[in-house]
Design goal:
This protein is mainly alpha-helical and 475 residues long. It folds into four domains: 109 residues, no CATH class; 103 residues, DNA polymerase, domain 1 (Orthogonal Bundle); 162 residues, Orthogonal Bundle (hpI Integrase, Chain A); 72 residues, no CATH class. The strands form three sheets. The protein has a three-stranded antiparallel beta sheet with strand order 1-2-3, with helices on one face. It has a two-stranded antiparallel sheet with strand order 4-7. A two-stranded antiparallel sheet has the order 5-6. A hairpin with a 2-residue loop joins β5 and β6. 23% of the residues are buried. The chain contains 19 helices and seven strands. α1 runs antiparallel to α2, α4 crosses α8 and α10 packs antiparallel against α11.
């Protein structure tokens, strides 16, 4: 028998051609391609399938010495009017077929028995491929599906033959998972989405007779999900935590392990001061630094090409949704200007020539994945619960801009989102608001009069601004 890896590769190639055939039929039913076009393409696919099949059979159907086993053609005779093809199998039995093509199909079935991979992981990959070629999904959607599969589906479950997985197995797995992880409802629905993707595909392609996921109701598992709303302290970093990040980055710049040109560290320092998104941070160019402001109008995105992640420069920010409106501007403060001058001096000293501000020593722009990994590990090393760049955006809004009395309209414009988004998702009381409020109240305590004196400075600590305040700020 031929090499198992070769057999699997041949089988996968045949499955790919089957998917192409199904896709052609869909195109025909939608009127995208005419009958003649379908017929020609189907003939081509059939020829490819036959060539793949014959290659596997001829490589596998050999004697112990590696010689090809003979295939006999029995033509009709007066004593035996039957016309057929036959060959002897490795176990000594003979198999027959009316046509040569029919015999090759029987041999193919024989040599692939037990080889076909019906594991949940393989079905997931097939389902994802079909989704990619038929549903025009975004690259990020496919990437999220892959991440979700690895996160929610254990290796043990992924290796199971999907034909042997019933609703009881899935229910037990689901119950153990929710009781162990207590996921957020959003995570639970992502998990269900992966199950639906896998088992819907298997059912549609007649791999399984029924879909066991349909038997899994959400209500029993919601009891074990974490339904609590995230508290502000779960979303933002305190001013003290921000200072810890700054100090750690500056400390690392003094160590040989990281070096003084610690570009991901510089990127984090810049993000702390500006609240830029990760993609915007990576795409920022020196030409975007104006006399009094920073022009934020592009982002770094990525797509999958031939199984590899490829990064590209997109001329829109996230909130512009593919239609450039020339981005937004953020004020160029003295602190930000000095930070940029420091980066430029380091690049000049190292002979780095790049249009991008945040670039590696070879001049290539930093990548989102690398920066996010750096920031997550740094925050985790300090024991922080929030470890993402988004927390820096929200912390700037809640810890700096909001207490300064900057209007919600201006805050939204600086961060690049709507007023409603800023109010609903970005404007929280500072993490240490209780201590600050107590100090303010204590400072007004007049021990002689027993009354409050005029406050020296009032800082608003409301979690959400009132509609009246919002309206007044818009005029």
């Amino acid at each position: 028998m031929g090499n198992n890896v070769d057999v699997l590769e041949v089988f996968k190639a045949r499955k790919s051609l089957e998917s192409q055939r199904e896709f052609l039929n869909v195109q025909h039913s939608l009127g995208i391609i005419d009958a003649d076009g379908v017929r020609n393409e189907l003939e081509l696919i059939s020829k490819k399938e036959q060539a793949i099949r014959d290659r596997l059979v001829l490589n596998s159907h050999v004697t112990a010495d590696g010689l090809p086993r003979s295939i006999a053609h029995h033509e009709p005779t007066p004593n035996n009017p039957k016309d057929y093809y036959s060959t002897k199998m490795p176990d000594g039995k003979k198999i027959k077929a009316v046509t040569y093509d029919g015999l090759m199909e029987k041999l193919f079935a024989y040599y692939t028995t037990g080889i076909r991979d019906y594991s949940i992981e393989s079905v997931f990959n097939a389902a994802l491929h079909e989704k990619e070629v038929t549903e025009n999904p975004k690259a990020n959607t496919l990437a999220k599906n892959r991440v979700d599969f690895k996160h929610y589906i254990s290796k043990e479950l992924a290796s199971k033959d999907i034909r042997n997985v019933n609703d009881l197995i899935l229910k037990q797995y689901t119950q153990e998972w929710v009781n162990r992880e207590h996921p957020k409802q959003k995570a639970f629905f992502s998990y269900k989405g992966i199950l639906n993707l896998i088992f819907d595909y298997a059912y549609a392609h007649k791999i399984i007779p029924t879909n066991p996921v349909e038997m899994i109701k959400n209500k029993p598992y919601m009891k074990s999900c974490d339904t609590r709303k995230a508290k502000p302290e779960d979303k933002i970093l305190s001013p003290e935590e921000i200072d810890i990040i700054k100090d750690e980055i500056r400390y690392r710049m003094t160590k040989k392990k990281w070096g003084s040109y610690y570009i991901n560290g510089y990127a984090a320092l810049f993000a702390i001061e500006t609240g830029v998104r990760v993609g915007e941070l990576c795409a920022l160019k020196w030409e975007d630094i104006l006399a009094t402001s920073i022009h934020i109008h592009a982002q770094q995105l990525s797509v999958k090409e031939n199984g590899q992640k490829v990064y590209y420069y997109d001329t829109c920010t996230k909130n512009e949704k593919g239609i450039s409106q020339d981005g937004r501007e953020f004020p160029l403060t003295r602190k930000i200007k000095n930070l940029l001058l420091e980066i430029k001096d380091k690049q000049d000293a190292l002979g780095i020539d790049s249009e991008f501000i945040f670039c590696n020593e070879d001049g290539d722009w930093i990548k989102k994945d690398a920066y996010e990994t750096f920031l997550r590990r740094l925050c985790q090393s300090k024991g922080f619960h929030v470890t993402n760049n988004h927390a820096l955006r929200m912390s700037l809004n809640s810890n700096v801009l909001l207490p300064m009395g900057i209007s919600v309209a201006d805050r939204a414009a600086m961060l690049g989102h709507s007023i409603q988004t800023n109010l609903q998702f970005y404007s929280f009381a500072k993490k240490d608001y209780l201590e600050n409020v107590r100090d303010l109240l204590d400072s007004q305590d007049d021990s002689n009069e027993g009354t409050l004196r005029e406050p020296l400075k009032i800082i608003p600590f409301s979690k959400k601004e009132s509609p009246e305040a919002l309206i007044s700020q818009c005029f």
